[in-house]
Amino acid sequence: MKTVSSLLDAEWYARYKRISKLYIRSSIYDVTNRCNLRCKGCFFFSSDEDKAAPEEMDIRKWEAFIDQEKARGVNLAILIGGEPTLCLDRVEAFYTRLPTFCASNGLIKVPRDRFPDMMIGISLWGDEQDEKVLRGKDTFSVSSRNYQGDPHVYYLYTITPRQIGQTETIIRKIREVGLKVHMQLLSNDEGVNGFSWTPEQLAAIRAEMDAMLDAYPDTVISSKYYHEIITTGTMLGRRFGWDECPSVTRPLDRRTPPPKRLIDFIRCRVSSVGGITAARKIATLCEAFGVRTAWQEGGDNDPINQLASYHVDLSSSAFGIQEDNRFPPLVHEMMPGTAQIKKGYLYGSDGPGLGIDINEEMAAKHPLKPPPGTEDGTTVRGLDGSLVRP
């Protein structure tokens, strides 16, 4: 079994232990809906986050909101976009109340007389040519000049497939301006031609990132296991990504006084933990410790698993929230009794058992096919019905 201590050398493990004792309770804030760039693949804009809510312009309301966040236990503010440096008054409202990290494209220099020790992560999307294609501008020439030698700044280097064989050039430039770098991979959310990864390219860039860590240990902030995770999509022997994120946010903790907790939910799949009986045992423990359930039944899960979660919800006072999964009319016809969502509520049927049946004759006309991008079908069961190891 892999443990934290087995993945880190003695110095980094000691650092990890010191950080873990800080009991960091961070929260992420979109400071503004505006940006001075429009990057192709920016999650904020490609997912319409900029349209999710109108931008609050009253600084007094920001200050009151931040005070409320601090009161509920937040002890680290992570500021993201649009571009936070367009609104330095809001950044200052956070910084004067909480330890603050700011993500920026680096085009606007943060005045160090106002923010002397605020950590800043500068985004960088490849070399000059990649930046011009994806961001419309070579940002490194500006950001490196703004922050040269700043001990509280590092680069978030987003590597593209075109960077294979060229990452060392970028890392050397970053080292020459006296900064550090953390590497990540472009997800190409907007499907820009030529910027999507193939398995062969992922294997190549993993080896290259490992080599950069070995060659520039004082510049590169990373680990080889992290490189493995982001290039293979697996962590601790299981898939890693949006579809697989079970978590328990409250441990069996008897510290006095108790630490402040921002979230008190347990999130895992009924099918992955062992079915209804095992899920009921988890829910019973949650009842005893004041934790709410939030069964994960979205994504590639099926109507049967959704109804299993539904019945566990109904049987436990620990019920908190239920992840939804909306099935097309064909599924409702093929599997009579499939739960329905109406105005935010999930409705099962009054049939026996889970209240669901299957029309086998109709199902035979619609055989299972692997979802796009998968080999074995789903993260719950294989196409042959075998359980996928959780």
Break the fold down into its secondary structure elements and pairings:
Blueprint: H1 4-7, H2 10-20, E1 26-30, H3 43-46, H4 59-71, E2 76-80, H5 88-95, E3 100-104, E4 119-124, H6 128-135, H7 140-147, E5 153-159, H8 167-176, E6 180-185, H9 199-215, H10 224-232, E7 234-235, E8 238-239, E9 247-248, E10 265-267, H11 270-273, H12 276-289, E11 292-293, H13 303-315, H14 329-334, E12 340-342, E13 345-347, H15 360-364
Parallel strand pairs: 1-2, 2-3, 3-4, 4-5, 5-6, 10-11
Antiparallel strand pairs: 7-8, 9-10, 12-13
Helix pairs in contact: 4-5, 9-10, 12-13
Walk me through the structure.
With 390 residues, the chain is of the alpha/beta class. Helix content is 34%, strand content 13%. It is built from 15 helices and 13 strands. The protein has helices spanning 4-7, 10-20, 43-46, 59-71, 88-95, 128-135, 140-147, 167-176, 199-215, 224-232, 270-273, 276-289, 303-315, 329-334, 360-364, and strands spanning 26-30, 76-80, 100-104, 119-124, 153-159, 180-185, 234-235, 238-239, 247-248, 265-267, 292-293, 340-342, 345-347. It is globular and about 70 Å long.
Beta-strand percentage range = 5-15%
- Tell me the domain tally: 2
> In CATH terms, what is the architecture of the largest domain?
Alpha-Beta Barrel
Provide the helix percentage: 25-40%
Number of helices: 15
Do you know the CATH topology of the largest domain?
TIM Barrel
Structural class: alpha/beta
Q: For the record, what CATH class of the largest domain applies?
A: Alpha Beta
How do the SSEs run, as a string of H and E? HHEHHEHEEHHEHEHHEEEEHHEHHEEH
